[in-house]
Amino acid sequence: MTSSSPDSPAPVVPDDGRGGVRVRLEGLRRSFPGGASVLSGLDLDLSAGAFVALVGPSGCGKSTLLRLVAGLDTPEAGTLSFSPSLERTRGTRSPIAYVFQDAHLLPWRTVLDNVALPLELAGVAESARHEAARTLLGEVGLGDALARYPAQLSGGMRMRVSLARALVTRPRLLLLDEPFAALDELTRNRLDDQLRALWKELGMTVLFVTHSLSEATYLAERVVVLSRRPARVMLDRTLELPAERGPSLRAEPGFAHELGLLQRALERGDTE
Ligand SMILES: Nc1ncnc2c1ncn2[C@@H]1O[C@H](COP(=O)(O)OP(=O)(O)OP(=O)(O)O)[C@@H](O)[C@H]1O
């Protein structure tokens, strides 16, 4: 990451508060000591602003892939490229945000101050960071919970705070690793809708790992099904579903058709 000085050139990525980044993985390899190879030359190309779900059998390497894309781990071979490049832009943009299954909130901070934390770390003045945090918390339906502490929130509310905190820096790429898996179905469906609305508004590229084929079909524009390790792409499908998603979609024949295709690819990937 680079920081900008007053006379440095204009940022590579314009700080316009929205937009995604193209992510290309070529020949990515990763194995762990004593274990079999997890990724043995994986290729994937995510267009800027895409919403892609990643599914695959347990232990096939989905989290490993996400960690490599996030720069939390290094591949043994292969390349990972971003376009436009992920130079940190002038000010407060953090190019990549990561949401885990556990919300990881700081218990001694209020909801507002948890969400404002990335901006505080970037040196943003209190009034500006609180305003940005308040806006996002309003968008995830927590406008009246700003002064609460994490212990006073339900699991679904904590995940909303986590999502708002990830988006407060307007990232170019949002990585989510089974973020709503621990929630009940109704809450999960609501959060899926909020995530899609935020994606439409902000236009970031989203890579979403889930075990639920139904959630992948409902949320994503494109679903990538991986085989058991070493992970191969069993199916890379752009879903033929309307851009507008809503609860009635789950009952439509097109939804069942897509779900069936994913299910069969997942089963093949688990046995072949
Ligand atoms: N740091 C590590 N050290 C050793 N082995 C690891 C490490 N991280 C992951 N693995 C192994 O790599 C394989 C893939 O793990 P990963 O967590 O990426 O799978 P996953 O597809 O996300 O699984 P799940 O769906 O169950 O969350 C597993 O066999 C796991 O035990």
From TrEMBL:
One of its GO terms (molecular function) is ATP binding. SUPFAM superfamilies: P-loop containing nucleoside triphosphate hydrolases (SSF52540). CDD domains: ABC_NrtD_SsuB_transporters. Transmembrane segments: none annotated. Keywords: ATP-binding, Nucleotide-binding, Transport. Residues 23-253 form the ABC transporter domain. Gene3D superfamilies: P-loop containing nucleotide triphosphate hydrolases (3.40.50.300). InterPro entries: AAA+_ATPase (IPR003593), ABC_transporter-like_ATP-bd (IPR003439), ABC_transporter-like_CS (IPR017871), ABC_transporter_ATP-bind (IPR050166), P-loop_NTPase (IPR027417). It holds the Pfam family ABC_tran. PANTHER family: ALIPHATIC SULFONATES IMPORT ATP-BINDING PROTEIN SSUB (PTHR42788:SF13), TAURINE IMPORT ATP-BINDING PROTEIN-RELATED (PTHR42788). This is Nitrate ABC transporter ATPase. It comes from Melittangium boletus DSM 14713.
